[in-house]
Write a structure and sequence with these properties.
Helix content is about 10%, strand content about 40%. It is mainly β. It has two domains: about 200 residues, no CATH class; about 70 residues, no CATH class. The protein is elongated and about 95 Å long. The two termini are about 35 Å apart.
Length: about 300
């Protein structure tokens, strides 16, 4: 009788499924250790002469916030709000006796990732005038998981009576007006409009009566192990109560009868070094069959 059974590839099934959880925080809790929602002001200026800092929780340079946001999320949208097309050389096969050549030069326009949030044509505006400003809200990944669930973000500035929502395609709306963008997998909200109902970006950094709500997304992987006991296996009990009280450790006579049928109460999962990793307890003892295979399914989530 084997003490262990080896799992084969067909005995394991890994199934991913996404879970979501809604959150809502007020600005009074933004600085809590388990929240940490930060706000930054970005400024279009010369970093060699302007070292002003920003951040309600951490400290960053305003000019670098502006430049990094522009490079990561708007570099393809500086000449057009719907993005710049990529300019590449054209291949002309056999143009000369020496073979194929490339005609035209490559352009850097349109070559950046920019983390587009939809397959729809994106409409992104980024201010580029001297000393233009942007507001950036940063939600930590420990809250949103893998990404913020589209169409779930809501930022209520109760101090100014303004509410920002996302449209599910990466745009931030104030009413029906597009005022910025949300980068779902990075937990970043960028306000690029220079005036929202008469308010400039710095106003939304300093607001003290704010509510932020959103839904997180996280993928859980469930692994299912199929343990099959054949009718000829594990037909002997390991329960110490079957040992008689005699000094030689002999078993009770009923254990050798044809009607004796072991029960399963516990299943253990071991690694290759036979270290016990997990224990599964059955809700009630289950009898093994002498005529058919018995299959147990163990589900583990992580």
């Amino acid at each position: 009788m084997a003490a262990y059974k080896q799992f084969l590839a067909q005995d394991l099934i890994v199934t991913p499924f996404e879970v979501n959880k809604g959150f809502s925080f007020t600005s009074a809790s933004f600085g809590d250790s388990d929240v940490q929602i930060d706000r930054f002001l970005g400024l279009n200026d010369d970093f060699t002469t302007n070292k002003d800092t920003t951040g309600t929780l951490s400290t960053e340079y305003q000019v670098l916030i502006y430049n990094s946001t522009k490079q990561l999320y708007y570099s393809n949208f500086l000449s057009s709000s719907t993005g710049s097309s990529v300019s590449v050389p054209e291949l002309l096969p056999g143009y000369t006796p020496d073979g194929d050549i490339l005609i035209g030069s490559a352009s850097s326009a349109g070559r950046y990732e920019n983390y587009l949030q939809s397959t729809l044509v994106q409409d992104r505006f980024f201010p580029t005038e001297s000393r233009d400003q942007i507001a950036v809200f940063s939600i930590p990944s420990q809250l949103f998981g893998e990404y913020i669930q589209p169409d779930s973000f809501r930022w209520e500035d109760n101090e100014r009576g303004i509410t920002f929502t996302d449209d599910g395609n990466g745009n931030i709306l104030s009413g029906s007006e597009n005022v910025g963008n949300i980068i779902y997998p990075h937990g970043l909200i960028v306000l690029t409009s220079q005036s929202i109902d008469g308010n400039t970006p710095p106003n939304f950094i300093t607001s003290t009566n704010v509510t932020c709500s959103f839904s997180s997304s996280y993928t859980i992987y469930e692994t299912q192990y199929k343990a099959t006991v054949r009718e000829s296996e594990y037909n002997f009990s390991l329960n110490p109560t079957i040992i008689s009280g005699s000094t030689d450790g002999s078993l009770y006579g009923f254990t050798s009868g044809s009607y004796f049928q072991p029960y399963v109460t516990t299943i253990g999962l071991y690694d290759n070094a036979q270290n016990l990793l997990a224990v599964g307890k059955l809700s009630q003892p289950y009898p093994l069959s002498r005529t058919t295979d018995t299959t147990f399914y163990i589900n583990l989530d992580r």
